[in-house]
Design a protein that fits this description.
The protein is an alpha/beta fold. The protein has helices at about 10, 25-30, 30-35, 50, 60-75, 105-120, 150-155, 155-170, 185-200, 220-230, 260-280, 325-330, and strands spanning about 15-20, 40-45, 75-85, 130-135, 175-180, 205-210, 210-215, 235-245, 285-290. Helix 6 runs parallel beside helix 8 (about 155-170) and helix 9 (about 185-200) runs parallel beside helix 10. It is globular and about 60 Å long. The structure holds alpha-D-galactopyranose (GLA). Alpha-D-galactopyranose binds near residues 133, 241 and 299.
Amino acid sequence: MPEALESLQQIYQDYFLLGAAVSSKTLCTSEELILKHFGSITAENAMKFGRIHPASDRYDFREADAIVDFARTHGKQIRGHTLVWHNQVPDWVFLDDDGCPVSRGELLERMQSHIYTVMGRYRGHIDAWDVVNEAIEDRGSSYLRQSKWLQIIGPDYVARAFEFAHAADPEAVLLYNDYNETNSVKRQKMIHLVQELQDQGVPIHGIGLQAHWSIYHPSMDSIRAALDDYLLLGLPIHFTELDLSMFRFEDPSRDCTWPTREMLERQAQVYGEIFALLRDYHQHIASVTLWGVADDHTWLDDFPVRSRKNWPLLFDEEHRPKASFDRVVEFSKGGGSDR
Ligand code: GLA
């Protein structure tokens, strides 16, 4: 008989919480994998502003409730994603009845009311929230991203969001979350933002590093250097959206219909190296979340190249463990853990 597959979350239980992003669809199609391998779930889209609060007078909690119910039924932790972001937020948030931009005061009220309503509904059930997502500009020397939040409220919108979130649920762990986190310029800006918040006494309890990486980038050295920098903030680190694309971000090719053996082998090697590094830093890492469960459903199927399939996760389209999975757990075979 083939050896029964071990549970990923159990193998990692002494290191950090291991989770996956889900939708109501994948809760059904990938239920077995989620139940066995992951200790927490994050709503991939269901709690984003546009989904949960599509019109000023209407919230739609159906999918988010289903995800929270699933987690509670099965004893999984839940991570909240996300409250204030420039993307997937409806226009009404920023406009008055005449279609003109609202005032700073009005937008702060709308932000507060959104945060109170969403966090209030799940208070006591959601342990950690990505309060502000992707506020930093990637390019050049500009600091904060030009978003409607910034234009209307001003740079203190980030601090205000954290204060509202803390008031809404004083027990929740509040994170600033962003991508391109190993880029040396971007990470200095991220660190600066978090330091400013800390200096102002703003309640921030962790930093979320998305980790949308590829099998080519970033190098282990740059991940290590970035972690060493973030650790100086003295905050726990959460890897919030880990996946490993088979393509370089700037690669526009469309002709790949199946992952080649070389791609799969390279991915396995890189996943193995990443998790070895994460184990090294486990005392500082609170959680690691994969941005999806298995390769049959991944946001990278359409991004950044439309209709191109991708295979960024640890389980294949048939939900079988990939070589990447084997490499992530192989340290536990034989001689016990490497701690
Ligand atoms: C960003 C967001 C996520 C998600 C991914 C793509 O990282 O934080 O919510 O939209 O992009 O799925």
